[in-house]
Design brief:
β5 (52-55) and β6 (58-61) form a beta hairpin. The protein has helices at residues 20-28, 62-71, 101-110, 129-140, 145-152, 156-163; strands spanning 8-9, 15-16, 30-31, 40-41, 52-55, 58-61, 80-83, 96-99. A two-stranded antiparallel sheet has the order 1-2. A two-stranded antiparallel sheet has the order 3-4. It has a two-stranded antiparallel sheet with strand order 5-6. With 171 residues, the chain is an alpha+beta fold. It starts with 7 loop residues before the first strand and ends in an 8-residue tail after the last helix. The relative contact order is 0.10. It is elongated and about 75 Å long.
């Protein structure tokens, strides 16, 4: 335990190994609204909008810190702090729950928030779905991968991967 840190009673009768100065500072950075409203993190945020909070032991997500305070314990192993409100800067413990990366992914997918990076939706794609269909058709007509690569301005490996179903398999 670091110097100046003492065990503090927390919400559920557990002891929390955070110094009172961190807890007080943390809640000072949160705009608390109604009990059912999101409590927005007012300080530094990641590009995705998640708040971050620094203590002498390191930096953690503001939503994680809020959940740990609420639970009265650290999150351990593969435990993560997840939002029911899907609002990254929210620190309202009523909107947070313990999950894993897997439950986070499933939650995201069930709410239609999963980023689709397949095919032409990928930021590095040089082809579109129609090109892939044409490449397969032209190949069946006898046009080789080397020529197709020149026509579509991609590598021969890219054409081969398409023809063998290793890429663009969703088309």
């Amino acid at each position: 335990m670091s110097s100046g840190c003492r065990l503090l009673p927390c919400f559920k009768g557990y002891n929390m190994p955070y110094a009172k100065k961190y807890i007080d500072r943390f809640w000072g950075y949160v705009h608390k609204a109604g009990l059912d409203d999101c409590w927005e993190w007012k300080m530094g945020k990641s590009k995705e909008g998640y708040g971050f909070f620094r203590t002498e032991s390191g930096t953690t997500g503001s939503h994680r810190f809020a959940l740990e305070l609420s639970l009265g314990r650290f999150l351990v192993g593969n435990e993560c702090s997840l939002h029911t409100c899907d609002n990254p800067p929210c620190c309202n413990p009523a909107h947070l729950f313990v999950g894993t990366n897997t439950t986070n992914y499933r939650d995201m997918e069930s709410k239609g928030r999963r980023c689709n990076r397949k095919g032409s939706n990928h930021h590095l794609a040089k082809l579109v779905e129609e090109d892939v269909k044409n490449i397969r058709t032209f190949n069946k007509m006898g046009i080789g991968s080397k020529r197709l690569a020149r026509i579509y301005n991609v590598s021969r490996r890219a054409i081969t991967n398409i023809l063998h179903g290793l890429s663009w398999s969703h088309v």
